[in-house]
Amino acid sequence: NSTETVAVPENDFYRLYGYKWFSSATDSNMALTLARVAQDTEVAE
């Protein structure tokens, strides 16, 4: 699995754990994130 950013469910949202590795639109009004949902046995650091 090459996507290192992990989304951990927390109440009504997801908390993201990972690293930002590029930004092509530094003055944009929105952002996109690619993440995978953490498995039950996975611990985010």
Automatic annotation (TrEMBL):
InterPro entries: Acyl-CoA_dehydrogenase-like, AcylCoA_DH/oxidase_NM_dom_sf. One of its GO terms (molecular function) is acyl-CoA dehydrogenase activity. It comes from the Eukaryota. This is Uncharacterized protein. It comes from Nephila pilipes (Giant wood spider).
